[in-house]
Amino acid sequence: MRTRPALAFLTSGALLLVAGCAPQPAPAPTSTTPPPAAPPPPVLATTVPAGQAQLIVNGRDVGPIGPVVCSAADGFARYTIGQTSFGVTVVITDDDMPSVRSVTIGDAGGISIGYAADVSEDAPQAFRHGDTLTVTGSGAGTDSTNPARVVPTTYQLAVACP
């Protein structure tokens, strides 16, 4: 009668020994292909063709936009770009080292933004590169689907008069 428990004990010990000696399964193959890299952020052109503009909002290139209309009066230059629903207007001092007086960007990728000197913080920077003007700035934009929502926004603009 004692042989059954002893036999059961020996059988279970033999099973553990066999299981411990069983070959281990091969590891799953690993991929040598690296994960896809994120595309580089868009780069603002320092020159654009006459009558064209490039706009980048929150790191997204909105693409070339136009038409461009330029005017100058009383020491200020005004750049008006695009159609009414997607209009961009920039007013700068008309000199070699321009300062930005106002920027209005309407619904670029769902965001609208405005800047007015002496009212807004964080003045945008403007530079001339030959016939191209570049403007870079940031501020609080509004979401076109929910105008009460304020969206931190960065923008870059390159524009050349026709």
TrEMBL record:
<keyword id="KW-0564">Palmitate</keyword>
<protein>
    <submittedName>
        <fullName>Lipoprotein LpqH</fullName>
    </submittedName>
</protein>
<dbReference type="InterPro" id="IPR008691">
    <property type="entry name" value="LpqH"/>
</dbReference>
<keyword id="KW-0732">Signal</keyword>
<keyword id="KW-1003">Cell membrane</keyword>
<keyword id="KW-0449">Lipoprotein</keyword>
<dbReference type="Pfam" id="PF05481">
    <property type="entry name" value="Myco_19_kDa"/>
</dbReference>
<feature type="signal peptide">
    <location>
        <begin position="1"/>
        <end position="28"/>
    </location>
</feature>
<dbReference type="GO" id="GO:0016020">
    <property type="term" value="C:membrane"/>
</dbReference>
<keyword id="KW-0472">Membrane</keyword>
